[in-house]
């Protein structure tokens, strides 16, 4: 049954939910190997060998929402909250620009302190001073705001569905609603954004069927950037005592996502790197093709604790993962900025 489904992909046939479940249920060593190889082959055909490197500034860890899984939730009083000023954000963007990176991701909790006008000013300055591509990851905003941000120069918007099973979505999001999140996803697409979504693997009560739905959701909404990672327990949250999502299941979702969605960007996420020190390279070998660096200033980043024991993926870590996976470092990167790695080793590739 399993190999029959893999053959359908080779013939470019569309998979239904039960076929996706068959792939996700792979557990014999030979099946897993075949699945990851197939995903890696499609990745190579669709997006080639270069791993795209982007950089995120987590500019505020204030959040007015109370998602059950997340350490930034408003009821977590054990977190030192911070907000970066416009000038601080521009300063870090300049550092990212000097690394040669072409896309900056502005990420925060849902923090209305950053009004429409404040965000617009930041977008305009980044465009004027650096001409970089801008990804916004600010949570849910109004349709009007999405439009204004787009017109100011934002290119991408990252708003994750987290869980495409409606009941599961509503269970983990006390302030949110599945229909609303889906509607926002649609708006972002209609407004011309390059859209990002994705979700968590290993949430309490999540089934294989739910993971198959997650994959079909990304396909249905035509998402360009699909970030999946394990659920990781965060201290001081209702889910602090639950167990982490597991690596193999996460890699299987990455692989099947690639097989189903094909020509998309799939990051080897920070959550995967946090679960397992080799997780990122394994994800790159199972269909992923993007790494996002964390460029939040060192004195602040430990407070952006969406989950506990987060790996601070920096340029050196990313380059090591890319080399370990035998893939290409993007030509736009300025490798003079590497610390740990011997340059000759990099140049030899
Ligand atoms: N485990 C894994 N990922 C998490 N995120 C938030 N909390 C967790 C967690 N406990 C991810 C979600 C969310 C982003 C803020 O970080 O995908 O979109
Ligand atoms: Fe806030 Fe996002 Fe965390 Fe939910 S997942 S609490 S919206 S930062």
From TrEMBL:
GO terms for molecular function: 4 iron, 4 sulfur cluster binding; metal ion binding; transferase activity. Residues 49-269 form the Radical SAM core domain. Its cofactor is [2Fe-2S] cluster; [4Fe-4S] cluster. GO terms for biological process: sulfur compound biosynthetic process; water-soluble vitamin biosynthetic process. It comes from the Bacteria. Keywords: 4Fe-4S, Iron, Iron-sulfur, Metal-binding, S-adenosyl-L-methionine. This is Iron-only hydrogenase maturation protein HydE. It comes from Selenihalanaerobacter shriftii. The chain holds residues 105 to 453 of 457 of the full protein.
